[in-house]
Amino acid sequence: MSPSRSILLVGEGNFSFSASASQLYSESETSITATCLQHQEEALRHEGAAGNIQTIKDSGGTVLFEVDCTKLEQCASLQGRVFDRVVFNFPHCGRKSGVKKNRELLKNFFLSCVQVLAEDGEVHVSLCNGQGGTPVDQPKREWHNSWQVAAMAAEAHLILSAVHPFESERYQNYKCTGYRSQDKGFHVEKSLLHVFTRGLPYTSGQTLKVEEAVEGEKVQYNIPAELSDFIFRRFLCPDSVHPVKLAQDFVLKGLAEKWLVSMTTETIPYLLTVKQLQTCCCDSDGTQCYWINLLEKDFSSDAQTSTEGEKDQGCADARETPSASCATSEKVDRMRSKGVECLRSACSIDVDPDGESGLYLLRPSLLPQMEELLTKKEELIDNAGSNEGNNESEGNKKDEAFGGCNGVTSLLGVSGVVFRNVPISLWALPAYHELLLRGVSPPEKDPVKSLGHKLETLLAPYGVSLVAEQGGLRLMAQPVGLVGKLFANDNNISVTVSLNLDLLAVLLFSLPDWRLLWSHDPRFLKQFSLRPQPGTPFSPFSLFPEHFSFDISFWTGPIWEEKKFHAVVREASRGTVEQVKLIDMFSHPDLSQTSYCYRLIYHSHTHALSHTQALQFHQHLESLLSSRLQVTIR
C-alpha cells in the first residue's frame, strides 16, 4: 500500500512516533492525527512530549487529547472522518495487567477503529515479540498465554494480511515509553507490526430458480441453497485469469504438443435426466447425486436462463410458494418410472421410482453431454458421407469424428462445473470444474499409456502420480487424493480423460484450501491477473486463521439421512465448516430414537472468522436442524 493520505494514531505516550511519522511524510499529502488517552496536562509530563506535539502541528498535523481508542466513534473531533490507516503501537492496559485484559483491549479497539476506517484501509498494531500469538513470533508463546491478536481482530471482521518486523530505526526520533504505566522505555527488539484489513461480509445461500432446455424441453428447477455460490461464476470464460482456467490452459497447452485438441462451444445444461445418465454411468453413485424436483412450468417468471451454464450472472430467488413446491404432470410421472427402471438395470443406482427426484439430477459428470456431442458429430459425418456416396467403416467414422488422420489422435474436450453430494471433509468438493477429453487411436498405439505418460510429465512436478487400475489409470496427489483418471473403451480404441481442475489449481499454485477458488474477495483474483506460471505459490491474504471446534448432539427418529445433515451444515455455516466427524451414536433401547453427536471444525481462509461468528453459525445450525430435519437438540 502506498503512503496513506490520512493516518490516525491512537494510544500515543510522548508523541515521538507521531512526530517522526509527520517528518517522514512531510513531503507527501499525508495528514497525521495523533491522539492519546491522557489529559493534556498529564501528557505534557512525558519527556519530550511538548516538542513532539509542536513538530506534529508544524507539519500540518492534529493532536487530540482524552481520546479513548475503544470508543473512537464517540470522539466529537473524529465524527464524520475516515482514515486510510489506524495505528496502535504497543497497546497495553497498564501496570501488571494480564493477557486476558489486553486481549479485551485489543478486541474493543478493533471493534471501535472499524467505525473510522476507510473501506480499503489498514489497521497497524505493533506488539512485542511473543505477544501476538502467531507463528511469526519466535519463540512462540502457548496460545492461551498470548494476546491472540488475529482472533481479536476477527471479532471486528478484520483479517491479518501481513506481519513485518517493527522498523524502529525508520522513525529516527521515536522513543518508546509507558513501561508499567511509567515514563520508562521497554525493549522493542524483534517486535512485530501486524497489518489488518477488512474481510468481506458473509452472504447467506439462497435457493435459486433456473430455467434450462433439457432434451429439447424447457424446465424450471431450484438449485439447492448450499450450492448457490457454485454456479454462474464464469471461471472458464475465454478472458478469465482464474486459477481454474489457468490450470485448464496449462493442461491443454501441454497436450497440444502431441495431439490436436479442440474444446466444444456447445451449450451444456446443469440438469440431466435419468435417461442421459444411463448412457455412461459406469462410475456414477446415486447416493452422491443431487436429485432435483422440477417446478411447475411458469415461464413468465424471472427464472435464470442457463445456456452454457456459465454465461450469465445471478439468479432470481425461488421463494416458498405453492407453484414452487408442485411437481410435474402425469406424463412426467410415467417417464419417471420408465427412466428409473432403465437406470437401475444399466447402472445399479438406487433411486426412488415414486419420488420426483427419480427423474432429474444435477450433472455429476460431463460424460453424458460428451456422448451426446460425439453422437451429433458422427451423425453429421454420416450425413456428409451419404451425400457424397461414401461407404466408410464404423471405425473410420469415429476417427473422422475426432479429426484423426494417419493414426494421429485428436482430442475433443468439454469443461464445466459438476456436482457431487459428498460428506463434508477437507478435500471433498461438492462442486468442481471437470475437464473431459475424448480421443481415438488404433489399439496398437495404447492411448491410455501415451496420454498417461504425457500427463505424468506435465503434472509430476506438482505432486501428481499415476496409479494403474483395471481398464485405466488414476491420477493421485497428496493431500488432495484423486485428481483425475484415464480409461479406455470401445476395445481400447477410444480413451477418456477426466480431470478435476479445482484440485489441479490447488496443486499448481499451492493453495491451502480449495474453498479459496470460490472466493469473491478481489485480493484473490488479483494475484492471477498477470497469468503466473504454474509453480508460482499463492500468497494468502488472510494469515493464520483460527480453527474453532463445536460439538452438536441431537435425537432423531428411526430414519436418519446424513447427507441432508451435511447440506444443512454447509448452508448454515456459509461454507466455513471444513470437517464433520461423527464421534458418538446411541440408539435408545425402548424408543425408536437414535442420538448422534458430531464434531464440527470451523475454519476460513476467505473471511474473518471469530469465535463469536462461528458460535452464531453453530446456533443457526441448531435452529435449522430442528425446523428442517425435525431433530431434538440435546
Textual characterization of the structure:
This is Ferredoxin-fold anticodon binding domain containing 1. Pfam families: BMT5-like, FDX-ACB. Residues 519-634 form the FDX-ACB domain. One of its GO terms (molecular function) is rRNA (uridine-N3-)-methyltransferase activity. The protein is α+β, with helices and mostly antiparallel strands. 27% of the residues lie in helices and 24% in strands. The chain has three domains: 5-198, Rossmann fold; 208-291 and 409-514, Bira Bifunctional Protein, Domain 2 (BirA Bifunctional Protein, domain 2, 2-Layer Sandwich); 547-633, Ferrodoxin-fold anticodon-binding domain (Alpha-Beta Plaits, 2-Layer Sandwich). The strands form five sheets. A seven-stranded mixed sheet has the order 3-2-1-4-5-7-6. The protein starts with 5 loop residues before the first strand and ends with a strand. Mean pLDDT is 85; it is low at 308-358, 391-395, 397-401 and 403-408.
Mean pLDDT: 85
The value of Rg in angstroms is 30 Å
CATH homologous superfamily designation of the largest domain: Vaccinia Virus protein VP39
Counting DSSP E segments of at least 2 residues, the number of strands comes to: 25
Pfam family, one: BMT5-like
Organism: Acanthochromis polyacanthus (spiny chromis)
Protein name: Ferredoxin-fold anticodon binding domain containing 1
InterPro entries: aa-tRNA-synth_II/BPL/LPL, BMT5-like, Fdx_antiC-bd, Fdx_antiC-bd_sf
